[in-house]
Write a structure and sequence with these properties.
This protein is mostly beta strands. It is built from 1 helix and 24 strands. The strands form 6 sheets. The protein has a 4-stranded antiparallel β-sheet with strand order 1-24-23-22, with no helix packed on it. The radius of gyration is 17 Å and the shape is globular. The N and C termini lie far apart (34 Å). The relative contact order is 0.18. This is SMP-30/Gluconolactonase/LRE-like region domain-containing protein.
């Protein structure tokens, strides 16, 4: 399993800074939550996202498919025949975007499952998300960049000089938090300054999720925890005991996270602490 992780990773200065857009109290949680098992039987699940109706979409790297779970827990195959599906996100109009890590492409699916190629010419794209302006953000691992797609279908750098990025979110003040599978978590301030916040991580993974009020959470793919990134660049575990968590999404209730574990193919629920 760790060889597959290495394949994903290889072929997948503290200073005085302005106040962080990342919110959350500074004290560590005394007892991280025990994850609640929801569903198992997934094959290397990575990207996850909910649509407006509450359906959960899961990109399964190992099976080359995207599964959909409805609110009643019923699971179907939404799309198959994919090559290394990794990142997954859903646009405001319900369009589903899936990164093909192995083919260097991002696909676009209608809610009915019709597929088209959204953009090509990438370099091991991993996590996907949308910024506050509605632009698709692509963690382009091999070029150490976060990219977006221009109106004419080209690629434009949003952030350069990262360390094998695999996931990113834009924070409420237009900064960013980036998960680097090759080294740490980068907080990028709106003024361009950076803080490295990954000292407590074994290997940060593609799962980066943010609540509506700006709290950011990142999976420790090389460990057993999901951690909250704090304003001072530190982090704290909100859940422990997972086997290589890799996917992460905020649940529709806004009060919990769902994480997908690569090691046992299981999706768990984690309450978000106050």
């Amino acid at each position: 399993m760790m060889n597959t992780l290495r394949s994903l990773a290889a072929a997948l200065a503290f200073a005085v800074v302005p106040a962080s857009p990342i919110v959350g109290p500074a004290a560590a949680y005394a007892h991280p939550a025990a994850p609640e098992k929801l569903w198992d039987g997934f094959s290397a699940p990575v990207g996850m996202a909910f649509d407006a109706a509450g359906n959960l979409f899961v990109a399964e790297w190992g099976a080359g498919r995207v599964s959909r779970i409805d609110r009643a827990g019923n699971r179907i195959t939404f799309a198959d025949g994919l090559s290394g599906p990794s990142g997954l996100t859903i646009g405001p109009d319900g369009t589903i975007y899936v990164a093909s890590y192995s083919r260097d492409e991002v696909y676009r699916f209608t809610p009915a499952g019709e597929r088209s190629v959204h953009v090509t010419g990438l370099a091991t794209p991993a996590g996907l998300s949308f910024d506050r302006a509605g632009r698709l953000l692509i963690a382009n691992r091999r070029t150490n960049q976060i990219l977006t797609v221009t109106g004419n279908g080209g690629l434009e750098p949003v952030i350069d000089g990262l360390r094998t990025p695999v996931g990113a979110v834009q924070t409420p003040d237009n900064g960013y938090v980036v998960s680097n599978i090759g080294g740490g978590v980068t907080i990028l301030r709106p003024d361009g300054s950076r803080i490295e916040a990954g000292e407590a991580f074994g290997t940060p993974g593609p799962g980066v999720a943010m609540t509506k009020d700006g709290r950011v959470f990142v999976v420790d793919y090389g460990g057993t925890t999901v951690r909250e990134i704090l304003a001072d660049g530190q982090s704290r575990a909100v859940a422990d005991g997972l086997r290589s968590p890799v996917g992460l999404v905020v649940a529709p209730d806004g009060a919990s996270l769902l994480t997908a574990a690569w090691g046992d193919g299981t999706i768990y629920r984690i309450p978000i602490p106050n």
